[in-house]
Amino acid sequence: MAKITIAEFQKLMTEELPWAAEAGMRLQAIEYGKATMVLPFAGNMLRPGGTVSGPSMMALADGTMYAVVLSMIGHVKLAVTTNFNINFLRKPLPGDLIAEGGIIKLGKRLGVIEVTLFSEHGVSREPVAHATGTYSIPPASNGANNGAVK
Amino acid sequence: MAKITIAEFQKLMTEELPWAAEAGMRLQAIEYGKATMVLPFAGNMLRPGGTVSGPSMMALADGTMYAVVLSMIGHVKLAVTTNFNINFLRKPLPGDLIAEGGIIKLGKRLGVIEVTLFSEHGVSREPVAHATGTYSIPPASNGANNGAVK
Amino acid sequence: MAKITIAEFQKLMTEELPWAAEAGMRLQAIEYGKATMVLPFAGNMLRPGGTVSGPSMMALADGTMYAVVLSMIGHVKLAVTTNFNINFLRKPLPGDLIAEGGIIKLGKRLGVIEVTLFSEHGVSREPVAHATGTYSIPPASNGANNGAVK
Amino acid sequence: MAKITIAEFQKLMTEELPWAAEAGMRLQAIEYGKATMVLPFAGNMLRPGGTVSGPSMMALADGTMYAVVLSMIGHVKLAVTTNFNINFLRKPLPGDLIAEGGIIKLGKRLGVIEVTLFSEHGVSREPVAHATGTYSIPPASNGANNGAVK
Q1: Could you tell me the pTM of the whole model?
Q2: A126 within 8 A of A104, measured Cβ to Cβ
Q3: Model ipTM?
Q4: Which residues lie closer than 8 Å to D7 by C-beta, 6 or more apart?
Q5: D56 and C19 in contact (C-beta within 8 Å)?
Q6: Are A126 and C114 an interchain contact pair (Cβ–Cβ within 8 Å)?
Q7: Which residues of B touch A81 (CB under 8 A)?
């Protein structure tokens, strides 16, 4: 079971990730080690022609990685991205973007997460981008060790 | 000599990269194969505590990569990021972020670019993030082959 | 159905990837868009203490990516890696390494592949490394367009 | 000044990186935060046609990163690669490969290094590959803290 609820994450988004909250990013589902986020089409990071920009997709992927990490260690404020790698696969269709994230490995000091981004409008559900990232976890806050979280 | 001027790039930013223009991103210098961009502190992508968010830094790095590519092939609209990798090194100080980008290799179909991000407030000038990225260049538009495309 | 057989791939390995053949790498299974390879423990890339080295794992992951690409476009000799990213997750146990690769996206010019490496000796089947890579596909040889090239 | 000599590194290569020693990899120069390694052409990781394979270049880049890390923290045996990203730029010419590595950032727990690979035979000195990697540094062994190294 996730160590943070959707409501708790949405709240911390307005405090810690204001740009995400402003863009209308929304946590849709969360489990222990998994998270789904949505970036609605009517955000403020569009490109002309209606397609979502690369940096919007990076922001969505990174926000989803954060949700995955917190789902496992609870609300730890000093967990930060150390490495982020993304492959852009297809031009997204004009519509909502869905990001599905899952933990690859949560260690004592680092967590590695994978996120796939989908266009909601796709006839077939094909990914528009795929990212992996590493989060650094502050000492003595990894839920896998001692649950010392807020 | 760069195949696009600062004024031309700033103009296309408002049309093609509205989120960057909105955040106040500014091209400070451009040469053939090099570009320097600034993300002013009073942007809309801040974190509480005054530090710049990861996605802001990704957006700045990606915008700088785009400037580097266009400096070499002129204003090509279909040049897009295919791969982006970033290492976050230090928490940025509250202040402007400077991004210095340079071409690693421009080929017929792909360009590989490197960008280093610095905090302007640093006593010493140490990087806060380092990124490399690959841009896909549409056929018959690579300046190295047949001249810039406007 | 895969556009190349296990026997065909093993043969081309001795010709095109002699280091892989020398290390005893073996294609275990192949389907259209998926491939499984094995790096036996008694290879020549060991570290003291019996654990497999990072570069061995990189070689195994890259060989697997190549198999995935060829499974979809047939035996194309000029398909080469352009970008490779790997996260090392756990120290591998002394034993065979299994690499499971699958296509993320095959486009006209680039293919993006994902590979997960497992220790065969693990009590639980946990990944020891996770990689994504991009292969550049020579023009007019992408099976998705016009049929496999032999 | 480097915290390890060329002779010390060559010795530990035969013990800790036997594949590198076997391929004839050689540390050419080392300073605090910088290292240059050579992969001679007559190694055992060639491709038909005389060009060096991708995995050989990955191995060379990773070995160079290790040398850079040890140049700053001395001979620490548990420093290991956690993330490695490489862009392949050009097909290498048949000849020695030179790898020039330098530290991007050495922190308490992680070190980020950059390596550029060159073909020695090039008329002009153009890179054939560019890599960045992250090394995990065991606690209490970072030379920047307390020099607790062997």
Answers
A1: 0.91
A2: no
A3: 0.89
A4: none
A5: yes
A6: no
A7: 54, 88
